[in-house]
Fold this protein.
Amino acid sequence: MASFAQRLAREQRAFLSRPRGAWASHLDQAQRFLGHLLASSDPDRPVLILGAGTGLEVPWSEAPRGTVGWDADPWSRLRTALRHRRWPPWRFEDATGAMGPLAAAAHRAARETWSGRLREPEVAQARLAALLPTLPMEPTLLREALETLRPATVIAANLMGQFGEVARREVEAAFAPLDPWDEAPELEAAFQAWHRRLLTAFLDALAQSGASLGLLHDRAVLEGPEIPALGPFADTWMQQLQGAGSVEAHDPLSGLDVLAVLVPRRPVLAQRWWWPVGPGQIHLVEALAYEA
C-alpha cells in the first residue's frame, strides 16, 4: 500500500496531467447527479456549494441565482478564484472549524515550547496522539453561513474525502522534516478517530440546516490495474463489489459510514461509480441525495 504522501503526490500529478477522456465518464455522472439537484432546487432560495478546489464536477451554468461557492481547500484558492472570477460569490474559510486547532496542537506536540526545536519523533507522535481527542470540533462558520443563507439545497462536491488529506498536510507541516506517520500506529489511530469526529460534526451541521443535501465524495481508493465490477447499490461499498477477491483499498473517510450517520434519513438517490484518477489508482465515488 502506498504511503499517504505518495497517494497525494500521485493525485496531484493526475489532476494536472489528467487525460480528459479517462475522466469523462466520472465528470458526466457527477454533473448529471449534481445537475439534477440544482434543477430541482427552489429557484427563489440560494444554493450553497461546498467543495475542495475549482469544482470540476459541478455544472455551474445550471446553478440558480444566489448560489454561493465555498472552497475549503487552502491550497486551491488561487486556482478557484482565477477560474470563476466573481461568480458565484466565494468563501474560502475552513468549513470544519477543526484545522486551526489541529495545526496548533501539531506544532505544540512537535516542538519544544522553550526552544522551538523539534522533539524526538516518538515523543512528538505520542504527544499529538494524546492531544487529538481533546480538540474542539465545532464548524461554527459553516453553521453561521447556513443560518444566514438558509439555502434550499446544500451540495458537498468532492469535499468530504479531502478533509483528511488537508488535515494530514497540517500535521506534516508542523513535523517537517520528520514524517509524523512513520511507525506511529497510535498516532494513526488517534488521527482517524479525530477525522471521524470531524466528518460527523460536518454532517450534523448539514443535516440540521433543513436543506436538501447532495453529497458527492470518494468512498474508497483502490490500487492496481483492475477495476472490479459493481453490483446494485448496497449499504456498504464492499458488498457492491463483484468478483473482486481480495482488494487493497484506502478509506478516505477513516471508516465513517455516511449513510449510518444520517439515519433515520434515507437517501432518495444513491449511486456509486468508478473514477480512474490515474495509472494504478481508482476511486470509488459515492453520490447521495437527501430531501429536506
About this structure: Residues 1-14 have pLDDT under 50 and may be disordered. The radius of gyration is 19 Å.
